Amino acid sequence: MIPARLVALAAALLIAATFSTPIGRSVVAPTAEAAAAVRVTWHPRRPSVGSVAWLHVQGLVQGATLEGTVSGRSLTFFPYGDGQAALVGFDLDARPGVAPWALAIVKPNGEGRVVRGRVAVQRRDFPVQRLTLPRSMVDLDPATERRAVQEGEQLRMLYRMISPERLWHGPFSHPLGAHSVGTNFGSRRIINGQSRAPHGGADYPAPSGTPVVATNAGRVALVAEYFFPGRLVALDHGLGLHTLYFHLERVSVVEGEGVERGQVLGTVGATGRATGPHLHFGVQVGPARVDPASLFELIFSD
User: Which CATH superfamily includes the segment(s) 128-296?
Assistant: First the structure.
């Protein structure tokens, strides 16, 4: 749902009616000034299911406040260049098609307007991955199942936290070095013949003890040892963006510590539910599980 403030503003401006617009274009309150001033661009222009994108809002009056949603989910904006920008995550289970977005802009004098548009979210097909694991790691006893459920909820609570400050800058690097390649993101997993949740991260096979580094600047939000992820580190990069490093053999950081891009967080291992040494690297934009490859492709000038 669109936030109450945005709905109220739309009603006040008498533009709550639905507008018909070309995909990727914006609709602005019907004044010449609005049409000329506000510009909204998407990067990439046509994002896909399971990806992270960003939108750039330019032409804002100095001191204006900005709120917005995409498919009913609130956006968190940060100053960027000559305007404001926000990351948008499209979960790996999101439906392809047209996603509506809306922005509420309020000038310092209280004058407001609503900008609306749509973005085309492209379909993506994910592979099926069949795994065989020990029964004790699949058919859990009641106590272990309760533990796994509780740990999963703790991670979901972490993803809902939105730190107000942008901690990352510039491009994101790979967690095992420039030439490392992750696989299996979004795989529909069949474990011991049973369908399971899709794989929410990318796997990086590597020998035990291989250094794992932070992909960008951030803060260590969690260091823990959970049943499925094993020994893990979660970084908060601010504004709802988190990166996750699972199955670690060793951890080199502590909760609350600030880290820089390329700083060693720990080493590759096979802790938790793992078939061998590898890094599970995940990216969360709020609750959206997105492909790390799309994070590496984002281009920011600062």
Answer: Glucose Permease (Domain IIA) (2.70.70.10)
